Amino acid sequence: MKAATTIHAITGMALVALLAHDAGAAPAGSGKELPPKPSVADVVKASKPGDWRPLDPENTLYMELPAGRVVMELAPNFAPKAAANIRALVRERYFDGLWVMRAQDGFVVQWGDPEEETPRPFKAAKTVDAEFTVPAKGTGAFMQLKERDVYAPQVGHVNGFPAARDPKGGQAWLPHCYAMVGVARDEASNTGNGSQLYTVIGHAPRHLDRNITVVGRIVAGMPLLSVMPRGTGALGFYEKAEQRTPIANVRLAADVPAAERSKLEVMRTESAAFQAVIEAQRNRGGPWTKVAAGAIDLCNVPIPVREQQ
């Protein structure tokens, strides 16, 4: 499949049957029960092995917390410099023994070094050029949603990540959807070096798009972060050291023995199965649903992840 291609049409009689609009569907407010339709779970169950891809060990991070493992997938096509510096930080074991230091309700959880006066030294780059947007060409096959977006001219998915782009400017970027991972920074754009990272735990703060480098997303372990006790300090930072959650270590999957890796796979967002996932979420059937939405927001599209089959 050619990179940076917008794909609008999905072929195949099986998918057509799955997505076909029921001519007898009741209009909103008619009082008639909506006909049953395939759910996201049904689509996942009916998917084929080719609809899934394994995580790339060179772009997969494991963060070990007292409650378990958090798995993050980097998106080097959208943030190559940031991803490279994060890999360098991980390989010099920078994060080992640091902390989850912030949990702001409805916003983000952040981890790294909370010490501003005597920060932990590291060999990786101290400044990294901002990658708020990147050239759309080369980021991958862009599967555009038909819905209009408030924050971007076009939105859709690329290689397992939600994505936005501006075709006139030729730029693309990753949005601040739930579970996306961003690179914390100070006022200067190049101060985000990956030594402090955060993930979105609340309603998508899309106003941050194109103002912070977004470098990946959490694909497993989000409940471990989203339930963190909320910080009582400014912006949700913990005021006392004992309130922080310790990070045992962070490792690249490539550096972990195969037997100890998380065996996960992500649904290919260029697959017909993923288009069926979108439709299942966009137009839910009855009997519980009384009014089908008929539309979907980018950050409300689930990107299925499962244990390798």
UniProtKB/TrEMBL annotation:
Transmembrane segments: none annotated. It comes from the Bacteria. The keyword Zinc does not apply. GO terms for molecular function: peptidyl-prolyl cis-trans isomerase activity. Its EC number is 5.2.1.8. Residues 66-252 form the PPIase cyclophilin-type domain. Keywords: Isomerase, Rotamase, Signal. This is peptidylprolyl isomerase. The keyword Electron transport does not apply. Residues 1-25 form the signal peptide.
